[in-house]
């Protein structure tokens, strides 16, 4: 439980912004949107770390960076102490087998022209080319049973399955190569409430059976509260609060966390209007013109003078709880504000 | 069936509505997808329609204004709106009702607006096709509505294209568009499922407040009971093309009678202790052609007994509650509350 499986240090990533004003004299001036701004996070073996945040805060980019589908601009991602972020595709292969991803939309993540069986056998044969095909098929059948799909459905195509079944097939496919680490990008958001419960139970059951470690990205706080061991709240490419589940949901410190919790619909208690945020996630264009101060300053109801000048740093409150907000800590003396611009 | 067909406060009254899709093959029978839906909507009332995907929620919404696929057909039943039966109107007369008397807010604002036209063009088109006013006047109306939905700097926003606004802002524009013609009813079909949690709460409260202030009735469709719990006066629970339970939202949530409603509430992640496995409604919703002469929920219901398999339940109308379930008989004392903790 204590061993760190994945650690991300000071990660940066920006995307080229679509240039709407693309006259020929503007073509060279590509502008960038920064998606990840100096993010630090670590995942311990056997835990479920949930990352929550609005769309546009960089969740999906982070998931793709962890899986090596994109390369970071700066910073490192290390897996069991070894840096994997700069590896070539070939050198990364052994790690791809140990970490697998479940994608957001079960409808588009499966190839419509491949049967369920084909989708499951493929990754296995890719990683173990010498495996006998019949062995692979047997393993696929066993995996389908493990995720609660009748073997009779193995010959079906994705369009013949329901949404919940498709998400189960996605999970089964990720588990085919016996990974130890699963990254799931919004695994529930395309599903109905009643199906969400089934998938949540399945994920918990698989974790206890196979000692999996989960990094789950979601904006569904009710589901996060149910399954997470630790929760990281992400805003504008940074972690603004990270805590154990109990602490985050009972004593949220960051105004953004409070707003997220207040916005999450509860069936018996009416919505809390005090912590509501206004506006959208800021888009920073270009990257190097970083605005000064806290990135939430324009939306935060409690922003004060220090928030406009100094970027708050993630500071531990207790062993389990760290927050990046000027309200929870004394403002740091001058020198620090220049640090953030480097 | 009551004899007073349209009491003066009733805005919309749907009676025994059956909708089917024409089969591609003439030898196949056409199967009803909506199977006898009846409900009423008072003026200014906020009514929620909740169910799984595939239950027929969207089909019901589009059947009211006959905006459905050309293969769909209203086989039986009536839709009385403001004293006229919409099922008897010609397509020309229907166009006077759509948009003008009944506004519609769709699920995904990105695909719902035309990407090739500015917001101004789309808003003006909507106003000018129904009202005989000048362009300048129409522009003022549009600006006024955009201010009502809290769009910052509406004059500049109007000249922009949909891709230049965020999803939350676009959804506000579609709400403004639905409100411009001052309809008596707005149908919002999953207006927030394409949006984030923070936006979701904001859009729902905006929609309900605007409808309340303008005296517009609202039919709010969602699959999430916790979302509509505080945004609606009454609630319809839909399952397999039928309304299985309806009543005042508060009492429906606190004392659900139908096993399906109980299951929907219990399946919410916040209803169980973190770490424990969630309640899940077993099985799947049957397809319309699989339904015989039985209760549509019988195969998933933990209380199903002989009668559930042999005949469809009748609607039991008690004070402010309608339930279609064999368990809820008006004559004997209500039995259900004892069993659910299985």
Explain this structure to me?
- Helix content of chain A is 31%, strand content 22%.
- Chain A has 11 helices and 12 strands.
- In chain A, strands 6-7-8-3-9-10-12-11 form an 8-stranded mixed β-sheet, sandwiched between helices. A 4-stranded antiparallel β-sheet of chain A has the order 2-1-4-5, with helices on one face.
- In chain A, helix 6 links the parallel strand 7 and strand 8.
- In chain A, helix 3 packs parallel to helix 5, helix 4 packs across helix 5 and helix 5 packs parallel to helix 6.
- In chain B, 46% of the residues are buried.
- Chain B is of the alpha/beta class and 342 residues long.
- Chain B has a domain of 223 residues: Rossmann fold (3-Layer(aba) Sandwich), CATH 3.40.50.300.
- In chain B, helix 7 runs parallel beside helix 8.
- At the A-B interface, helix 6, helix 7 and helix 9 of A face helix 7, helix 8, helix 9 and helix 11 of B.
Radius of gyration of chain A: 21 Å
How many domains, in number, for the residues of chain A? 1
The CATH architecture of the domain at 10-232 in chain B is 3-Layer(aba) Sandwich
Numbering strands along the chain, what is their spatial order in the largest sheet of chain A?
Answer: 6-7-8-3-9-10-12-11
**How is the main sheet of chain B built?**
8 strands, mixed
Q: How does the overall form of chain B come out from the CA principal axes?
A: globular
Oligomer: heterodimer
Strand content of chain A: 15-25%
Number of strands of chain A: 12
CATH homologous superfamily (4th level) name of chain A: P-loop containing nucleotide triphosphate hydrolases
Write the CATH homologous superfamily of the domain at 10-232 in chain B.
P-loop containing nucleotide triphosphate hydrolases
Tally of contiguous helical segments of chain B: 12
CATH class of chain A: Alpha Beta
* Major β-sheet annotation of chain A: 8 strands, mixed
Number of helices of chain A: 11
Structural class, from helix and strand content of chain B? alpha/beta
The CATH topology label of the domain at 10-232 in chain B is Rossmann fold
């Amino acid at each position: 439980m204590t061993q760190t499986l994945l650690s991300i240090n000071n990660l940066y990533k920006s995307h080229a912004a679509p240039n709407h004003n693309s006259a020929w004299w503007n073509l060279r001036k590509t502008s960038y949107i920064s998606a990840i701004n100096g993010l630090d996070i670590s995942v311990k073996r056997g835990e479920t770390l949930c990352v929550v945040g609005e769309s546009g805060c960089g969740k999906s980019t982070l998931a793709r960076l962890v899986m090596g589908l994109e390369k970071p601009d700066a910073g490192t991602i290390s897996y069991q102490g070894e840096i994997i972020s700069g590896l070539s595709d070939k050198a990364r292969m052994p790690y791809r087998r140990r970490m697998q991803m479940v994608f957001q939309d079960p409808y588009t993540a499966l190839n419509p022209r491949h049967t369920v069986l084909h989708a499951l056998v493929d990754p296995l044969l890719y990683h173990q080319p010498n495996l006998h095909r019949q062995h692979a098929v047997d393993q696929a059948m066993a995996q389908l049973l493990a995720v609660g799909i009748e073997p009779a459905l193995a010959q079906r195509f994705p369009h013949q399955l329901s949404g919940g079944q498709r998400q189960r097939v996605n999970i089964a496919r990720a588990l085919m190569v016996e990974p130890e680490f699963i990254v799931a990008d919004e695994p529930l958001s395309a599903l109905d409430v009643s199906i969400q419960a089934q998938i949540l139970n399945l994920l918990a059951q698989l974790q206890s059976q196979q000692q999996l470690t989960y990094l789950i990205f979601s904006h569904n706080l009710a589901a996060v509260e149910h399954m997470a061991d630790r929760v990281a709240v992400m805003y504008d490419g940074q972690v603004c609060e990270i805590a154990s589940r109990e602490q985050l949901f009972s004593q949220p410190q960051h105004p953004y966390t409070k707003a997220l919790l207040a916005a999450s619909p509860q069936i018996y208690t009416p919505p809390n209007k005090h912590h509501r945020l206004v506006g959208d996630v800021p888009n920073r264009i270009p990257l190097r013109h970083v605005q000064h101060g806290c990135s939430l300053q324009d939306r935060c109801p409690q922003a004060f003078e220090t928030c406009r000048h100094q970027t708050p740093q993630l500071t531990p409150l207790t062993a389990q709880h760290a927050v990046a907000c000027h309200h929870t800590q004394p403002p740091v003396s001058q020198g620090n504000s220049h640090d953030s611009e480097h | 069936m009551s004899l007073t067909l349209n009491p003066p406060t009733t805005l919309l009254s749907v009676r025994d509505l059956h909708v089917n899709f024409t089969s591609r093959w003439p030898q196949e029978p056409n199967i009803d997808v909506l199977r006898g839906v009846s409900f009423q909507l008072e003026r200014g009332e906020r009514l929620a329609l909740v169910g799984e995907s595939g239950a027929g929620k969207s089909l019901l919404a589009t059947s009211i204004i006959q905006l459905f696929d050309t293969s769909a057909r209203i086989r039986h039943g009536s839709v009385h709106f403001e004293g006229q039966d919409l099922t008897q109107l010609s397509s020309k007369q229907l166009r006077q009702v759509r948009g003008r008397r009944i506004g519609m807010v769709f699920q995904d604002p990105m695909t719902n607006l035309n990407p090739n036209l500015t917001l101004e063009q789309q808003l003006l088109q909507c106003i000018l096709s129904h009202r005989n006013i000048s362009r300048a006047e129409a522009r003022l109306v549009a600006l006024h509505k955009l201010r009502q939905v809290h769009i910052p700097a509406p004059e500049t926003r109007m000249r922009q294209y949909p891709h230049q606004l965020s999803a939350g802002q676009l959804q506000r524009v579609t709400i403004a568009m639905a409100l411009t013609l001052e309809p008596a009813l707005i149908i919002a079909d999953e207006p927030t499922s394409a949006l984030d949690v923070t936006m979701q709460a904001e859009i729902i409260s905006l929609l309900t407040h605007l409808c309340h202030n303008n005296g517009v009735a609202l039919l709010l469709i969602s699959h999430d009971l916790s979302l509509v719990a505080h945004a609606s006066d009454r609630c319809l629970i839909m399952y397999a093309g039928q309304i299985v339970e309806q009543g005042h939202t508060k009492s429906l949530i606190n004392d659900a009678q139908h096993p399906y409603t109980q299951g929907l509430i219990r399946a919410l992640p916040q209803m169980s202790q973190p770490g424990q496995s969630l309640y899940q409604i077993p099985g799947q919703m049957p397809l319309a052609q699989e339904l015989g002469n039985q209760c549509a929920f019988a195969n998933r219901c933990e209380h199903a007994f002989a009668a559930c398999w042999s005949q469809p339940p009748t609607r039991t109308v008690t004070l402010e509650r309608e339930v279609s379930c064999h368990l809820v008989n008006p004559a004997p004392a209500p039995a259900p509350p004892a069993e659910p903790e299985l």
